[in-house]
Structures are given as C-alpha cells and as structure tokens.
Amino acid sequence: MDTTSVWRTAAPATGFGMLQGDTQCDVLVIGGGITGVTLALLLAQQGRRTVLLEAGEIGSGTTGHSTGNLYVTLSQGLSTVLSRWGEQVAREVVAERRAAMEFVEAQAQGMPEAAFRRCPLVLYARSVRDQAHVDGEIQALTRIGCPVRREDRAPAGLPPARGAVLVLPDQAQFQPQAYLAQLARRAAQAGAAVHEHSRVLEIDTGARVAVTATGTVKAGEIVMATHSPKGVHLVHAEMPVHREYGVAFEAPPGNTDIGPGIFWWHGDEGLSMRTLEQQGRRYLICVGQEHKPGAHNAKAALMALEAAAASYLSPGPARFRWSAQNYRPHDGLPYIGRDHTGCFIATGFSTDGLTWGTAAARLIAAQLAGQRPAFGERCAPGRFTPIKGARNLLEENLTTAKALFKDYLTRGQKEHLSSLAPGDSALVEFEGESFAAYRSPQGELFAVSPVCTHMGCKVHWNSVETSWDCPCHGSRFRPDGSVIEGPALKPLRRKPIALG
Ligand SMILES: Cc1cc2nc3c(=O)[nH]c(=O)nc-3n(C[C@H](O)[C@H](O)[C@H](O)COP(=O)(O)OP(=O)(O)OC[C@H]3O[C@@H](n4cnc5c(N)ncnc54)[C@H](O)[C@@H]3O)c2cc1C
Ligand code: FES
Known about the structure:
Residues 412-500 form the Rieske domain. The protein is α+β, with helices and mostly antiparallel strands. Helix content is 28%, strand content 27%. The longest helix is centred in the N-terminal third of the chain and has 22 residues, at 87-108. The protein is globular, with a radius of gyration of 22 Å.
C-alpha cells in the first residue's frame, strides 16, 4: 500500500546532498524533523558550525506524517500535568508552547506553501463517561487563565456532542512538510551543512563521532533529534510507544465542510479531524486511535478508522493513508536536554511534538549558548519522579517484558518458507533457528533474524507498511532488515536460506 502522507505528496523534494567524507563541527544534529531542522537554523544563526544528518529526506520521519496542528494545550489533557505537577508547571507548559507556536508563525511569514492559519481547537465527547474528560479540561484551562469557551453543541458537520463543548480560540494549523522544507533551506542559507540520505550508523558518544556509510562527523556536541534517541537510553524504559493511522479523504460533497479548526472527538471511537485545501482540492483528514506497534493488526486498524469516518462524517473517497508513532512521557513532560550519554536528546513528545519539537530546539539552542532556561530544568531527561509516573512505568515495563518472552512463531517448517506467496510473511523456527521471512510481490525472499537489535525483543509483521516492527521501544525494520525508525542503530541480521 502507498503510505505517502497528504503533506509529503505535495511538497517538492528538498534535494540536499549526502555527507561525503570526514568533517568537523561545533554541533552535530542528527535528524531532520521539526526538532532537528529548527535547531540547525537557530545554531547557524548563532554562528555555530552546524552539521545536520538526516537518514532519509527532510520531514520523512514523524513530522511529515503528523496532522499539522499547533496548540498550547496537550492531547492527553492539560489536567494530567496540572494534577501531577501543579498549577505553576501547567502555566509554564502553556507559556512555552505558546512561544513555540508564535515562533512557527513568525517563520511561516513569507512561506505561503506552509499554509499557516489561526483557528480554534474544539474538544468534545459523545458519551457520559468521556464527557468527564472534556469538563476536566475546561476546568483545568480556566484555572490557569486560558480563555476557553464552553459551548453547547459541536460544530456543524460533526457528530453531535453529549455535553459541553470546549472551544480554545487562537490555536493554529499548517502544512508541516512544506514548512519544514523551507526551514531547512533557511538553515542551509544561514550556514548549516544539511545532508539527506546520510543515516548515522554508529555513534561514539565519548569521542563525539558519528559514522555514516559515506563519511564521519566529529563534533563538539551531539544532539539526537531522532524522535526517539538512538542506542540505549534510560528514557526508553519510561516511554510507551504507540502507532496511529491517518487518512485524507476528499472533503464531503455539499456544504458540510467543517472549516478551519482542530477538532478532537474524545472517546473510544475518538477521532482528530481537520480540513486542508491543497493544490485545488479539499480534504478531510482523520487520525484515529493509538495502537502498540507490533502488537496489532495494521490493516484492521486502518479499516476501523475508515469505517468510523465513513459512518460519522460521510466523506468522499480516501486519497492518502499513512501512519506514524508517538512516544509518551511517563509524567506528562517531554525529555529535553543532556542525558547520561553526554549527548542532548529531545523526545517524549506524545502527539504534541510539532510544538514540543520547536520548543525543544529553542531550549537546546539556549542551553548550548550557556543559558539555563527554567523550563529546560523541568524537562531534564534525568529527572526522577517515582510517584508521579510509577504506575504508568510499571504497566509499560510489563508489556515490554511480555513481548520479550511471548512466542510469536507462526509456522514451524522450512517448507513454508519455499511456499511463501508473494506479499506473504512468516515467523518461522527451523532446526533451532528463527527466521522473519517475507516474499516481495516480485518474488524475492528475504529472511532476517526476528530479534530486534536494540534490546532483543521479537519483531512482528506490519502488513500495511511491509515492515518488521518491535513492540518494545518502537524500532522498525524493512524486509531486508535495514532500520526505518526507532532507537535501533543496527539492521536485523540477514539470514542465508537454503531451500533445497
Ligand atoms: C499520527 C500522528 C499525528 C500527529 N499530529 C500532530 C499534530 O497535529 N500536532 C503536533 O504537535 N504533533 C503531532 N504529532 C507528533 C509530532 O508529529 C512529532 O512529535 C514530531 O513531528 C516529532 O518531530 P521530531 O523532529 O522530533 O521527529 P521526526 O519528525 O520523526 O524526525 C526525526 C528524524 O530523524 C531521522 N533519523 C532517525 N534516525 C536517524 C539516524 N540514525 N541518522 C540520521 N537521521 C535519523 C528520521 O529519519 C527523522 O526524519 C503527531 C504524531 C502522530 C504519530
Ligand atoms: S526497540 Fe527496543 S528492543 Fe526493539
């Protein structure tokens, strides 16, 4: 299935060259998403020698597969931060996120393709149980002084509300891929060396050297702006990872366009909805429920999202389908700053990372300039909040442990490998060896080790994106074993297979 997002299909290629040879710099930024590109721009503007290495293309990670919404609150609810950390921190969260949103707005001036627009955020529920969350959010936002409105019906074109509807005015949305591509050009113009198709394969955190297939970078500082930091980091044990699916439908015919806005329908069948006008077409974009990577049926998840959208919104045909994953912090705040490896990391953004990623870049740029922003201390990766996050942490570690030990083998004989049909996959054990096998539609058979190279969990097949996905910390691999995303640096080991 083609899983190019509606954002990436429209934005022109960025065309930055690969790293060639060995180089040195003040700061190496690994990752060309919103965090890395924003940071590279800020560092170049500070006059620092900056290199940005992106494994794929600018935006090809999560940023180019998001929903393009910017807001001061949090998708999990500001009430979670309020109850865990108190009023002062909740105010700081909103202030930091508002400043990041205004930064994006300022950058987007003169970028018509970024399609930045101010709009309201609307949150509502369709059941009594889910209404408690909406009421809690109205209270939380009011308590910290956000100008929230309470309305009694959902906007026209959306399924009806069960109770009060929260309206937070003056939030924003944009075209994340187009914005990022332009920002990367600005970073390069400001002096940053930006390289695409330059995957970092090894990092020597002590010597501050990163190795790619075509060169090395020796840096004074390394920033892992890779969504989840590469290698083994303490934060991996604290961050549940979830995969979400997005679909861009042709907008419903007639006058049922819901207009500009961030529309969150909270609940079991909940959806995040927004509209987009792009290249003369109108779309309705829906993003659905969260799923554990490698522990759900990807096709079923996508079908459920399309079915929910069809029954409640009656959109036109689905034109784009994509998916991406998020990493949720255990105590509600992201992890931004230097961690025990000596590198800077920026992660735990949940589904709020277009704003958090921008905020993280601003905080890290300030820290590298010798400042100590107060909010940076709050988000320090080494913070320890055993009571605030213990329950979540334990539940997640349990899932991780189960995934390590559960036997997911689906077939037991070598004959099955030879009879694997094009497009089919199998986890096979034969003569004491495990294989994760896949036959491409062209007939080529790939067999790799099913053991994730990050910390040894077993990978599972993702039929929508033809990848082997790890349920533990979200590493994903192509059928040939090469890394797509997540903390793993090394590919799954290729296994020779003699089918005779
Ligand atoms: C379905 C979905 C919808 C979302 N919608 C929103 C939204 O509307 N608003 C919002 O605020 N947030 C949203 N989010 C969250 C947000 O998209 C992310 O938190 C944010 O984009 C993360 O940005 P990033 O730069 O940190 O990571 P990424 O955009 O993932 O960038 C990391 C980059 O690092 C590169 N990389 C990885 N490994 C290496 C390596 N070894 N060498 C070199 N490069 C490497 C990757 O290729 C990637 O391009 C959404 C998330 C999901 C899953
Ligand atoms: S991602 Fe950590 S073990 Fe696979």
